[in-house]
Amino acid sequence: MNTKPLVENVFWQKEKECMPKGELRALQLQKLRTLVARVYASVPAYTRAFDDAGVKPDDIKALDDIRRLPFTTKADLRENYPLGYLAIPRSEVVRFHGSSGSTGKPTFVAYSKSDMDNWVNLCARFLYAGGLRPGMTAQVAFGYGLFTGGFGLHQGIERVGAAVLPASSGNTARQLVLLQDLGADFLICTPSYALHLADGIQSGAIDRSSLNLKGMFLGSEPWTEAMRRRMEEGLGIYVENNYGLSEVQGPGISGECAFRNGMHVAEDHFIVECINPETLEPVEEGEEGELVFTTLNKEAFPLIRYRTRDISRLDNAACPCGRTSVRMSRITGRTDDMLIIRGVNVYPSQIEAALLAIQEASPHYMIEVSRPKSMDEVTVHVELKPNSMVDSISELNAIRDRIVAGIAGVTGLHMKVALEQPNTLERFEGKSKRVKDLRNLKD
Ligand code: DLL
Q1: From CA 247, how far away is CA 256, in angstroms rounded?
Q2: CATH 2.102.10.10 is held by the domain 1-336
Q3: Global pTM?
């Protein structure tokens, strides 16, 4: 455990962040009981799910009783598309966001005025803990749109009282110019994009000494301590990890403190469980398992026991920073086949859907993901149909271009496409394995 702070150890909402454990658990129980009664009465999908599980709101008498409640999954959200889980009148919604789903349609989430206020404060918590202060500037290189990264972090920076530079994602040359000319203290983006920009700086594209950069807040995709070291040592900066997912809120669910012993979960807003994804029983503390979140304060889109598919470990031991909340380790994997490519969530089934729309393409494909330098690259190997009568290179190129455009249309990402002869890709008797991930995201 780190016992020395790496930046000043400060708090955004000290009373909440350092609440004695007993008080925190009592608060969670009281909020859980209120929540369960509310969703049972106002969200038909929950009324049905609770009835099917044979549980009534009054059965929740202790925190452990949460285990009697049914899980909520992404499939449930899809079945109740677009807003079946909305728990307030539509007229009280002040914001929508969404994330990509395996069917190609996004999963939507909604926020009330008070949800927004909580979300903004939770982003401010980890930004402040990681060194952002009023008077500083933070450059946001996350996409602004349905994705929660851009707007979520943007508002957190404003709440801290720092200046936001809403650069949005992409356009590396411009990002570097902005960093240099407007002198941001912090850069906020995905770890892979940060590494890409760091490589640009270190390769001499711009002079390190002309930058005012002190740190980075990175999240939204898996990354490693090795990547952190490379950026911290290479650029002489401080790099912080933060976690979130749109269904549960977006960024701000957890983030590192000055001691960096894992990410503190905002337990006054969420109950986190770590379960064995096969048995669905809790794992022992410190063991790897799937994280499951229950939202305690969300008015518009409360979720009960939402299965994230993210693999992590929980640690309740006291942290020298003084925060009392449980800490989660880096995410080490997922229990489903979702890939995160340059920060964008992609399911193989989305690529399959794009291929099925192209007459000459067969549904036999293999997705190869690599990270040759610092940016993810994807090559989709696709077999042509045996009877596709193609006899010129220009025809082949035209088919490939259509597949590239089709995939971009569904995923929003440009992927390389390699056309393969019929019957050359591996066939599977059991569960198909369509993804070859050559990135090292484990250490
Ligand atoms: O990525 C929210 C976010 C935005 C978090 C900006 C942090 C910063 P989604 O697009 O719904 O939401 O993707 C959520 O991304 O289930 C994890 O698999 C992965 N993820 C998020 N943060 C981390 C992290 C946003 N720090 C999915 N480390 C989650 C590893 C992460 N994986």
Answers
A1: 21
A2: no
A3: 0.90
